[in-house]
Predict the structure.
Amino acid sequence: MAEFRYPAKLYLLTALLGVMTLVYSVTRLAEAKDYEDTLPFRVQIARLAGVKQRIASERMVGYLSDLDPEHSAYAQLYFPTQYVLAPTLLVPLEDDPGTKFVLGNFTRQGDYAAVGREHGLEIVVEFPMGVVLYRVLAEAPASGEQAHPGR
C-alpha cells in the first residue's frame, strides 16, 4: 500500500488555517449577539395589531421613540415596526412628517402623555408593551416649543 507523506509546512499551514477559521467564527458569533433581535417579528405583529387597524387608511404616520436614532437599538425597533405596519410609512417625528397621527414606540415605561405634550401630541390610544398612538394637536405644546408647521 502506498504511503502519502507531505512536507511539514503543509501540515503547519493546514493547522494555521484551522485556527484562523475558528477565531473568525468565534468573533462573528460574538458580533452577532450585538444584533440579536430582542423583539422578534412575531412579537411585533402581536404588539402592533391594534395600531395597524387604526392607521390602515393613513399613508404616513409620524414615529417617536425613547431610543437614540444614532444607536443600533433604534433600528432594531424601527425597521420591524415599519415592516409590520406597511404599507403605511413611518416618518421620524424629527423629520417633520406633517401627519395627523404619530406612533410612540417605547422600550421603557414612562409618562407617555407627558412625552406627547412635549411634542405637541395627545394620546388617542395606549396599547400594551410601550405602544402609543398619538394625534397631533393644532395648538403649540405646553413646553413652549412651537408645534411643527404644516400640521
Notes: The longest strand covers residues 121-127. The helical segments are 8-34, 41-47, 49-54, 72-85, 112-118. The chain has a mean pLDDT of 86. The radius of gyration is 25 Å.
